[in-house]
Amino acid sequence: MFSDKQKPRTMSEIGGQPNRIEKNTKIKGDIISEADFRIDGKLDGNVKTSGKVVIGKDGYIHGKVECVNADIEGSFNGELLVSDLLSLKSSAVIEGTVSVSKLAVEPGATFNASCTMGGGKAGASNAGGFKPSMNTKNEPAKAS
User: Fold this and answer.
1) Other CB atoms within 10 Å distance of the CB of residue 68
2) Closest CA to 37 of 78, 71, 76, 83
3) Backbone φ and ψ of 52, nearest 5°
4) Largest CA distance in the chain
5) How far apart are CA 29 and CA 18, in angstroms?
6) pLDDT tens for residues 54-93?
7) pTM (2 d.p.)
8) What does 57-85 look like in DSSP terms, one character per residue?
9) What distance in Å separates the CA atoms of residue 105 and residue 87, rounded to the nearest whole number?
10) CA 111 to CA 53: how far, in whole Å?
11) Region Disordered: start and end of each range (predicted)?
């Protein structure tokens, strides 16, 4: 009847497929997903995923985002909680509050947020822009 390649997929099998909000699309509301999410349009609401969130160059999110990893090329305003790596591309514009484990910032990115690193409540508040730590040791941040 169906070969393995033609067999229809169930919802559990496609749970790992990325979701996408295309350019010129506006959504107002909350999104909960186990899969990765790419935003190239506008989202006014919250995103919670156990995957990765990508905000494309034309993408914009205003709200709260909770995810494992995030790559941002577009704009974000709100509360950003990334349990692993947040990567800001040169075109990224971030405003609000950010909590991350690891942060990578390309030159040119705008980072106007208070930022907590290391997974704990301790960390440097940074309302005026990103300034890298002068700590040259390769040790993880420690929460007090």
Assistant:
1) 15
2) 71
3) -110, 140
4) 63
5) 19
6) 999 999 999 999 999 999 999 999 999 999 999 999 999 9
7) 0.71
8) TT-EEEEEEEESEEEESSEEEEEEEEEEE
9) 6
10) 17
11) 1-20, 121-144
